[in-house]
Amino acid sequence: MPLQPRKKAPAPSIGLTKMGRIPHTVLRVIAANIQAMLEAPVEMLPAMEIPETAYQTQRCQYDAGLVLKYLTHFSFPHHSRILAVTDVDLCTPIHTFVYGQAELGRTLAIISDFRLKYMEDGTAAAEGVYYERLAKVALHELAHTLSLYHCETPKCLMQVSRGLSHLDGLDVFFCERCTFVLHESLRNLHI
């Protein structure tokens, strides 16, 4: 019997859910950028509640790590990665705020649009600026789930964002090294 070529596994599917009042348009913009940059299908999942157990009363923010821990209690058998999008202000024990957080080399990531909607002077960001920021933060956090660390290459999407003006100055692209690691990680998900 002749050898049959090995069937290529389907592309890893990324599940996208919202936690809070996130317009469907925002999810569509994020999904389109994920599909374009990661070449992975995106499936919209039902909305979820933001866990009140993650609320930090003294800070009036939600602990991003506790939200990720909450998400581990759910099963997502048909998705290799899950990205939750929320409208609440996120923090970590050591950061006064974060735009997002992810499990390095694992499954879950969360981003928040809470601080992305405004300019540093408090005025509303233009719609295009807002959507680009969402795409950058979503891709950055998903790349962490694919084992990418922070990068020092100027304008690489994996740079640590030091504020909105820094985020706005980043490209919606990964540097050559990060692109290589990203493609290797995505390729390994197909095996």
Helix-strand blueprint:
Blueprint: E1 14-19, H1 24-38, E2 42-44, E3 55-56, E4 61-63, H2 64-71, E5 81-86, E6 90-92, E7 95-98, E8 100-102, E9 108-112, H3 127-145, H4 164-169, H5 176-189
Parallel strand pairs: 1-2, 1-5, 4-6, 5-9
Antiparallel strand pairs: 3-4, 6-7, 8-9
How does this structure look, described?
- The structure is a single chain.
- Helices cover 32% and strands 18% of the residues.
- The chain has five helices and nine strands; from the N terminus they run βαβββαβββββααα.
- With 191 residues, it is of the alpha/beta class.
- It has a single domain, classed as Collagenase (Catalytic Domain) (3-Layer(aba) Sandwich), CATH 3.40.390.
- The mean pLDDT is 93.
- The protein has helices at residues 24-38, 64-71, 127-145, 164-169, 176-189, and strands spanning 14-19, 42-44, 55-56, 61-63, 81-86, 90-92, 95-98, 100-102, 108-112.
- The strands form two sheets. A five-stranded mixed β-sheet has the order 2-1-5-9-8, sandwiched between helices.
